[in-house]
From TrEMBL:
Residues 37-323 form the Amidohydrolase-related domain. This is Amidohydrolase family protein. Keywords: Lyase. It comes from Lacticaseibacillus jixianensis. It holds the Pfam family Amidohydro_2.
Length: 324
């Protein structure tokens, strides 16, 4: 079985330095220093893939990326990040494909960078992590990014990002548990994913996928809570929007899901029931998650048909990211 994983991450020495120096959004991953070799060194990545039966990774920068730098650094930082990624991919063209880092707070520049990265560097789409300085992507000022992606017929990976301090304070800080507990609850345990589900709900409700039907959206962590509420959302959507299709129609037409290392059978069966295997891809979230042989074995042993397994393992990703 050929295996492609699609939410896998990298970083560069330049970005690590600039992030530490300029970012107002602080790194909240206590293992970031420990993971640095696996983020930066593509030889390490290939060795890990060889050991664990992974044929290809779709690589992106997420979280601590130039996206969150002040505007005067974000555009050049994203461009440098994409050039370095393309250079690394050129050394292992059969093992990696890339998604462009986008300076989303400067939407016109982000649209230009996406077009450049796809047409000149061979990137397979772009990635945006979380809200953008607390703003969601349904704001009209972000429309140039969707227009560019639609014209290119490419994919935007909507990855979680660090939520704002105000959100964290209101929703997750508590005297009943530790500050570390609040940070984890606001992040990888719950908050990142809830916010990213809200992000996608707002994008569809605002009519962005109606206006831009050629954009493909990739969403990790089994869809960031949205699939379990599709029917519920459909029931209320006509009250707040006059779109010609149901919310779930846009979602099932243009959104593609993966587990991001959440190798859990109940969520997998729910997503397959709601979306079908042609909208499901595989992902480990390397190097933040390192499941080793389970990355392959879970899918090999999953209660799915042979056709579903092949689609999830590589077929859907090959279509979504134009890997053939």
């Amino acid at each position: 079985m050929k295996l492609i994983t699609v939410e896998e991450h990298y970083d560069t020495e330049r970005n690590i330095k600039e992030f530490n120096q300029y970012s107002a959004v602080k790194n909240n991953n206590p293992r970031q220093g420990q993971l640095r070799p696996d983020l930066v060194d593509f030889g390490n990545k290939v060795a890990y893939m060889d050991q664990n039966g992974i044929d290809m990774q779709v690589i992106s920068d997420a979280g601590n990326s130039p996206q969150v730098l002040p505007d005067q650094y974000a555009v050049d930082g994203a461009h440098a990040q994409n050039e370095t990624l393309a250079e690394n991919i050129s050394q292992y063209p059969d093992r990696f494909a890339g998604l462009a880092t986008l300076p989303a707070n400067t939407p016109d520049e982000a649209a230009k960078e996406l077009e450049y990265a796809v047409t000149n560097l061979g990137m397979k789409g772009g990635i945006i992590s979380g809200s953008v300085n607390g703003q969601f992507l349904d704001d009209p000022r972000f429309e140039p990014i969707f227009a560019a992606a639609d014209q290119l017929g490419t994919t935007l990976y909507l990855h979680p990002g660090v939520i704002t301090n105000d959100q964290k304070s209101m929703l997750y800080d508590s005297k009943a548990y530790s500050a570390l507990g609040a940070t984890m609850m606001a992040g990888a345990m719950w908050g990142w994913h809830m916010e990213q589900g809200i992000q996608l709900m707002r994008i569809i409700t605002a009519g962005i996928l109606e206006k831009y039907p050629h954009v493909k959206i990739a969403s990790g962590h089994w869809g960031e809570f949205v699939p379990m509420f599709l029917e519920r959302i459909d029931g209320f959507s006509p009250i707040i929007t006059a779109l010609p299709l149901k919310f779930s129609d846009y979602y099932r037409r243009q959104v593609y899901l993966s587990p991001s290392g959440m190798f859990t059978a109940p969520q997998m069966q729910l997503v397959l029931t709601e979306m079908g295997a042609d909208h499901v891809m595989w992902s480990e979230d390397f190097p933040y998650v390192q499941s080793g042989l389970e990355t392959r074995q879970f899918l090999e042993q999953a209660d799915v048909t042979a056709a579903q397994r092949e689609a999830i393992a590589h077929g859907t990703a090959e279509t979504v990211f134009n890997l053939n």
